[in-house]
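Summary of Year 1 activities. Much of the first year was spent building the evaluation harness for sequence design. The harness presents a backbone, in tokenized form, and records the residue chosen at every position. We chose the following record to illustrate the format because it has been used consistently in internal testing since the harness was completed.
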């Protein structure tokens, strides 16, 4: 009976219009929420793929450096859950280009082992890696950093490291001109500040002969890396510090997660407004159906039964809107890239400039758990919205309505 009230063509036209507007609001709210959550998932996935591809799952470090690092690397590689280990030295430096100076991070790597712990070797030309290992005092720069410095492969950059050189003329910061042998690009923030040299060059620049700053560790699973490294820390000497990616990069992903939650709450308010528009629809339906309600009560219908009819009436309207919105949202989330490409071609503009946003199209990752959560939250809001009008319908006294009939 409630569903017949929802979709009957014999209703008052104004009541039908209000019901249609409420249902369309629900469609737009649910579709927007599903689409935006999928895009947020896509951005988080892009960040995870691009940034964490350069960031090892964990680090083992020592304040004084690690001298016998091959033995320690072999010991760590034999621990459960550890797939690969590679040495490194890293520190903040100042790069000097043709026209400006810029801060960045210089990391010395073992080019033979680096591919086992990060995607950096895959992001540059193999010849650049070979030149980095074969020629001393060479460097591979992030593509964006190189553009900012105004240098290209074959040019030289001045690198000032946080070490001091004592000379008869005084104490000076250590500087060295390095030849650029290649660029790397992952399409993320590291392109703007990161640079790499060989391990031998790094040991000379940072005055660490025979020593490394630490070991990079790759585990079997990115998401279980914190537990794996916590267990590894108990098996290592106490003077070695063990960190995982959630400690070095976790704040970024927590910020993305928080942003997703806040955007979800804001868009859920659109669904809430559409849901509570159902209140006005039901109030008008109750006023329109007063005689029907009185007849039902006279024939023996309980107050609870009348209330259930109007709850079903409201949920019928809401369910139709939520179902259509969920389908539309899934379609938009699945085909968001072609849709944005169509509008870019139609308007003749580029919505996402890769040099600015590191992406050329909207990423989207549809997760059915998000769709289910949106549908359930929308149904819950709709149920709450139907309770008061249904309660008012249940309180209608049949004698008052039928007195003048």
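For this record, the design step produced the sequence shown next.
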């Amino acid at each position: 009976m409630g569903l017949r009230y929802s979709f009957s063509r014999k209703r008052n036209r104004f009541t039908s219009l209000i019901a249609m507007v409420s249902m369309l609001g629900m469609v737009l709210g649910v579709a927007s929420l599903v689409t935006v959550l999928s895009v947020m998932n896509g951005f988080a996935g892009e960040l995870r793929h691009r940034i964490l591809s350069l960031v090892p799952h964990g680090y083992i470090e020592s304040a004084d450096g690690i001298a016998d690092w091959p033995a320690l690397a072999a010991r760590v590689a034999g621990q459960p859950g550890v797939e690969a280990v590679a040495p490194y030295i890293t520190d903040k430096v100042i790069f000097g280009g043709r026209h400006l100076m810029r801060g960045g991070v210089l990391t010395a790597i073992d080019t033979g082992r680096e591919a086992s712990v990060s995607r950096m070797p895959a992001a540059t030309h193999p010849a650049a890696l070979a030149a980095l290992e074969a020629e001393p005092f060479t460097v591979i720069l992030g593509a964006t950093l190189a553009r900012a410095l105004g240098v290209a492969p074959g040019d030289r950059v001045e690198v000032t490291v946080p070490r001091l050189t004592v000379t008869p003329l005084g104490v000076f910061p250590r500087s060295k001109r390095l030849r650029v042998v290649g660029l790397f690009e992952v399409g993320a923030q590291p392109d703007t500040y990161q640079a790499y040299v060989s391990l031998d060059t790094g040991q000379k620049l940072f005055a660490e002969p025979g020593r490394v700053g630490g070991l990079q560790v790759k585990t079997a699973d990115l998401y279980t890396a914190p537990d794996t490294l916590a267990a590894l820390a108990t098996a290592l000497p106490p003077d070695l510090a063990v960190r995982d990616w959630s400690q070095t990069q976790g704040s970024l992903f927590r910020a993305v997660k928080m942003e997703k939650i806040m955007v979800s709450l804001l868009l859920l308010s659109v669904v809430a407004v559409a849901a509570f528009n159902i209140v006005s629809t039901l109030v008008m339906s109750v006023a329109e159906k007063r005689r029907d309600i009185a007849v039902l009560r006279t024939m023996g219908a309980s107050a609870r039964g009348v209330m259930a009819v109007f709850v079903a009436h409201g949920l019928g309207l809401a369910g139709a809107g939520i179902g259509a919105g969920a389908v539309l949202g899934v379609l938009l989330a699945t085909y968001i890239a072609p849709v944005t490409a169509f509008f870019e071609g139609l308007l003749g503009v580029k919505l996402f400039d890769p040099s600015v946003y590191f992406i050329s199209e909207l990423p989207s990752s549809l997760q059915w758990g998000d769709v289910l959560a949106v549908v359930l939250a929308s149904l819950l809001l709709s149920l709450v919205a139907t309770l008061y009008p249904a309660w008012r319908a249940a309180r209608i006294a049949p004698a008052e309505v039928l007195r003048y009939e």
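The chain is about 55% helix and 20% strand. Quantitative recovery figures across the full test set are reported in Table 2.
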